[in-house]
Design brief:
globular, mainly beta, single chain, 3-stranded mixed β-sheet, 0% helix, 5-stranded mixed β-sheet, 125 residues
């Protein structure tokens, strides 16, 4: 089975600020079992620690792939902490269109089917 790993890397810098939105560019995800990284530099945050009073509200993606089951989607902090957003979900369906992962969502990614869209509960919650 071929697996692709999409990792969004977040670089956190301690500065005073309010809620912010960060985005990055994507690229091709080949079916060759290699990891693919799409880094996003995050700066201007008031804390370098994600805890109960400070953290990510959501992670939103648009991802085109012909077999979502092959994908592992994660975010990775600079210290190596990894949060799984989705792993081997969607069967042979394709795409994540305007899909937002949130710890406050009601519907689990494992309860949905591809194509995914809308607000989905993080896999690890």
């Amino acid at each position: 089975m071929k697996r692709i790993l999409l990792v969004l890397s977040f670089v956190v810098v301690s500065l005073t600020s309010k809620a912010q939105t960060f985005s990055g560019t994507g690229g091709a995800i080949p079916d060759n079992n290699n990891y693919v990284y799409f880094p996003i530099t995050v700066s201007g945050l008031s804390s370098s620690v994600i805890d109960s009073s400070f953290g990510l509200q959501s992670v939103c993606i648009n991802l085109l792939h012909n077999n979502d089951y092959h994908l592992t989607i994660q975010i990775v902090a600079p210290d190596g902490t990894t949060i799984d957003l989705s792993m081997n979900n969607g069967g042979t369906g394709n795409n994540y269109t305007n899909t937002c992962f949130s710890g406050n969502a009601i519907t689990s990614i494992t309860a949905g089917s591809a194509p995914f869209s809308g607000i989905i509960l993080l896999r690890e919650f």
